[in-house]
Amino acid sequence: MSNGIAHLAFTGGRRIQVGYSKSNRSSCKQCRKGIQKDALRVGQLTGSPTEGIGPKWCHPSCFLDFIKGCFAKPEEWFKKYVPDAEQIPGIESLTPDDKAIITDLVALGRNPMRYVVTVTESREASGEIQLVCTNMNGDAVCPNLRPDTKANVRRHVAQHVGRRETEVELVNADGSLFDGASGPSRGAKRKAPGSDSRAALLASAGGA
Questions:
Q1: What is the pLDDT of residue 184?
Q2: Residues 61-113: pLDDT tens digits?
Q3: How many other C-beta atoms lie within 10 A of the C-beta of residue 47?
Q4: CA 144 to chain CA mean position, Å
Q5: Domain boundaries, the chain
Q6: pLDDT digits (tens, 9 = 90+) for 163-187
Q7: Pairing between strand 115-123 and 168-171?
Q8: Threshold 0.90, pTM exceeds
Q9: Cα(188)–Cα(166) distance, integer angstroms
Q10: Neighbouring residues of 129: CB distance < 8 A, sequence distance ≥ 6
Q11: Per-residue confidence at 7, pLDDT binned at 50, 70, 90?
C-alpha cells in the first residue's frame, strides 16, 4: 500500500524520499542492518500507482552503493529522478545537519567525481576558532584548520583526501557554498546552485 508522500512523489517523477525512521522495524536494503528509531534514512521509491508505491530504505551512507547496484549508470538515475535537495519529499522535517547530509548525497550521486566537504567553525577552550571539515558520514577528512580563504581550505582538503582541487566542493552546514572563514568583513553566504528554487514541500515522511 502506498503512503501519501511516496505516491505523490512517484507520480510526480521523483524516486526518492527521506525522513526519520518511525520504529526499529526497518532495515537497510544495502547493508541489511537495522535502521534505529529516529535515525535518518533515505529511500528509493518503487512500485506502481495500481499495486502500491513505497520506499526501499537505506542508511544515508549506504544509499549510493545501493543505487549503484541497481543501475548501470547511477548518476543518470540521480539526474533524472532526484530533484534538488530542497525539493525531496520529507526534507522539511530534517535538522539542518541532516539536510546537509542529503545535499551532499545528491551532489555525489549526480557527479561521482565531486567530493563534498562540510566546513563548520568550532571555538576552542582558548577562544581560537578552528575549521572542522567532514564528509557526508560526519567523519573528519583532515586536521582542523585555522580560518582561511576558500582556495586555501580546498587545497588543504584535497591534499589530505587525495583528490584534485577541482573535485572538492566546500559547503556550510546549511548546504550553502563555503566562501571562506566567517568574519565581519565578509558578506552573506552564497547559496548553492538551485537553492533558490525551493518548492512547497510535503508535510512529513511516511513509511514504517
A1: 34
A2: 899 999 999 998 999 999 999 999 899 999 999 999 899 889 888 988 988 87
A3: 16
A4: 22
A5: 4-92, 115-171
A6: 888 889 898 888 788 988 754 333 3
A7: parallel
A8: no
A9: 24
A10: 121, 122, 123, 146, 147, 181
A11: low
Q: Give the sign of the dihedral formed by CA 23, CA 19, CA 40, CA 2.
A: positive
Long-range contacts of 74-82 (CB under 8 A, 24+ apart): 74/109, 74/112, 75/109, 75/110, 75/111, 75/112, 77/15, 77/109, 78/106, 78/109, 78/110, 79/110, 81/13, 81/14, 81/15, 81/16, 82/14, 82/15, 82/16, 82/106, 82/109, 82/110
CA distance 208 to 198: 27
Nearest Cα to 107, choosing from 96, 92, 117, 94?
Answer: 117
Q: Which amino acid is at 7?
A: H
What cell does 163 get? 583528490
Give me the residues paired with residue 47 across strands.
53
The region, left, alpha or beta by phi > 0 then psi within -120 to 50, assigned to residue 32 is left
- For domain 4-92, give its CATH number from 3.30.1740.10, 3.30.565.10, 3.90.470.20, 3.20.20.20: 3.30.1740.10
* Alpha-carbon gap, residue 46 to 124, rounded angstroms: 47
Q: Does residue 138 have a pLDDT over 50? A: yes
What is the Rg, in whole angstroms, of the alpha carbon atoms belonging to the chain? 18
**C-alpha cell of residue 12:** 510526480
User: Please, what sign has the CA dihedral across residues 30, 67, 82, 49?
Assistant: negative
The burial class, CB within 10 Å (0-12 / 13-18 / 19+), for 188 is exposed
